[in-house]
């Protein structure tokens, strides 16, 4: 995904001083420019400048930057219209909101079955963002709830998603690995082997690779794309290592795989 690099913009009509809030003004102006297209399908720099009260040169630069990022498209007439990337973002937002609503019942049932913390995770860049987490009220030891975003390479969720998404796996490998505990896998070849094993068995594990004493098991939530199941999220169980990778591991694996398969099927029904 292209990262926009926008000049600091002065809403009064030009390039402003490089003070602390210049980046925020750039973002505000970009949003204002995009808002112009809510009422008109195509606009040129002159029209945008007039509507926002900024210099035409400023509007030109902003429109060009947004087009470079795929948020706008330039037409044959030289004007601009909303780009496909905005549609993709909108669809992603809808999918993730729907994902949470669909997954919650299965997460609640799995929590009661295993009496452990259940997480719903999605990929953001090369990190995992946990968009929902449920904990059993009777748990004696709780996972630290501030862990909402973790590096994908050290989590079972990141591994199970990368195993089914070659582009994500490549991005994680390119980013490189940070060691968080003595058990964090940082060797690229070993990581590739783990992904291969994950694809074969249909689930992933992480043994104390981000926080000592805590381990997890994850299974993918998939949706059909191009006639094939594609991982869009994952359910995971996180608990003290002895409770998730000890004698209870078969039950944990079976529970998380069944729950993820149920959510996958419910998602397909919800979209049909």
UniProtKB/TrEMBL annotation:
Any Pfam family: HTH_IclR
Q: Which residues form the IclR-ED domain?
A: 85-269
* Presence of the UniProt keyword Cell division in the record: no
Q: Does the keyword Repeat apply?
A: no
Keyword list, A-Z: DNA-binding, Transcription, Transcription regulation
Domain HTH iclR-type: from-to ranges: 24-84
For region Disordered, the annotated ranges are: 1-22
- Give the signal peptide range: none
| Family matches, as InterPro entries | GAF-like_dom_sf (IPR029016), HTH_MetabolicPath_Reg (IPR050707), Tscrpt_reg_IclR_C (IPR014757), Tscrpt_reg_IclR_N (IPR005471), WH-like_DNA-bd_sf (IPR036388), WH_DNA-bd_sf (IPR036390)
Protein name in UniProt: IclR family transcriptional regulator
Originating organism: Actinomycetospora chibensis
Q: What taxonomic ancestry is recorded?
A: Bacteria, Bacillati, Actinomycetota, Actinomycetes, Pseudonocardiales
């Amino acid at each position: 995904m292209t990262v926009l690099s926008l000049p600091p913009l002065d809403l009064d009509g030009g390039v402003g001083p490089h003070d602390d809030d210049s980046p925020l003004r750039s973002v505000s102006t970009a949003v204002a420019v995009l808002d112009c297209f809510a009422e008109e399908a195509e606009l040129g720099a002159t029209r945008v400048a007039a509507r926002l009260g900024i210099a035409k040169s400023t509007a030109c630069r902003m429109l060009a930057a947004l087009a470079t990022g795929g948020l706008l498209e330039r037409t044959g007439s030289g004007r601009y219209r909303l780009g496909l990337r905005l549609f993709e973002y909108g669809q992603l937002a809808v999918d993730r909101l729907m994902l949470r609503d669909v997954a919650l019942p299965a997460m609640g049932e799995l929590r009661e079955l295993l009496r452990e913390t259940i997480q719903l995770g999605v990929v953001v860049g090369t990190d995992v963002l946990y968009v929902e987490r449920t904990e059993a009220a009777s748990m004696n030891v709780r996972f630290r709830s501030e862990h909402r975003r973790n590096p994908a390479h050290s989590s079972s969720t990141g591994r199970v998603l990368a195993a089914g998404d070659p582009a994500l796996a490549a991005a994680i490998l390119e980013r490189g690995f940070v060691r968080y505990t003595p058990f964090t896998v940082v060797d690229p070849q070993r990581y590739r082997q783990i992904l291969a094993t994950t694809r074969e068995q249909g689930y992933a594990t992480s043994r104390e690779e981000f926080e000592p004493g805590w381990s997890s098991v994850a299974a993918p939530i998939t949706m059909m794309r191009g006639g094939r199941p594609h991982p869009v999220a994952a359910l995971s169980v996180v608990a003290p290592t002895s409770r998730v990778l000890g004698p209870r591991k078969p039950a944990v694996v079976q529970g998380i795989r069944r729950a993820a398969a149920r959510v996958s099927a419910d998602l397909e029904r919800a979209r049909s």
